[in-house]
Specification:
- It comes from Drosophila virilis (Fruit fly).
- This is Odorant-binding protein 46a.
- Keywords: Secreted, Signal.
- By secondary structure, this protein is an all-alpha fold.
- 62% of the residues lie in helices and 0% in strands.
- The protein contains eight helices and no strands.
- Helix 1 packs parallel to helix 8 and helix 5 packs across helix 7.
- The termini are far apart.
Length: 192
């Protein structure tokens, strides 16, 4: 029952309210960070631990606070996996590759996810100058968080929703709605 209600609410938000689709449309879909719709991109123990840590620090009651929570969780996750470089604006791709090599058995899956991290690391850099991201950075600053890791995680989640091998995609209503929104949104994005 709750799952149906959540899916209906997500559908109303994304489909009926239809945010304006422009080059920032992916920023309107912050919920996709929660959506592990592809078996290749799953909720790691580090992500779960960071969610717990940040839930104790940020008790969100609205979408802006939830976005702060998710972006700080992303930075915590990438710090704990050592994916995030010291400058907080790039990925340590060697660590990403080593993690994927040890975590994924299939070379094609590993290559797909690695290339996604490369693409998303570059894409996140291009978003840092956007007005919406600069506004987000100001909201993150009091918590000591930077937008780059969250932008990477959001991009990876989006890419995995869009490019997941069909047999690995979770055919839930929420994942299908997210994928349909992102397919429409991608027509407006300018990826690096």
């Amino acid at each position: 029952m709750w799952l149906k209600l959540l899916c209906a609410l997500f559908w109303l938000r994304v489909v009926l309210l239809k945010p304006q689709l422009d080059e920032d449309c992916e920023l309107y879909a912050t919920d996709t960070m929660h959506d592990f719709c592809c078996e290749l991109h799953y909720e790691t123990p580090q992500f779960s631990d960071c969610q717990t840590d940040w839930h104790d620090k940020i008790h969100f009651t609205n979408e802006q606070e939830e976005q702060i929570f998710m972006f700080c969780t992303a930075e915590c996750t990438y710090n704990s996996t050592e994916f995030l470089a010291a400058n907080r604006q790039s990925l340590n791709l060697r660590n990403v590759r080593e993690h994927l090599e040890s975590d994924l058995a299939d070379a094609a899956d590993e290559a797909l996810l690695y290339e996604t991290y490369v693409k998303c690391g570059k894409h996140a850099l291009t978003l840092l100058s956007h007005k919406g991201v600069q506004s987000l950075a100001k909201r993150l600053a009091p918590h000591g968080c930077h937008p780059y890791p969250g932008l990477v995680l959001e991009c990876v989640a989006n890419e995995m929703i869009l490019k997941c091998p069909p047999k690995r995609f979770h055919q839930t209503p929420q994942c299908r709605v997210a994928r349909d929104f992102l397919r429409e949104c991608m027509q407006h994005l300018k990826y690096a």
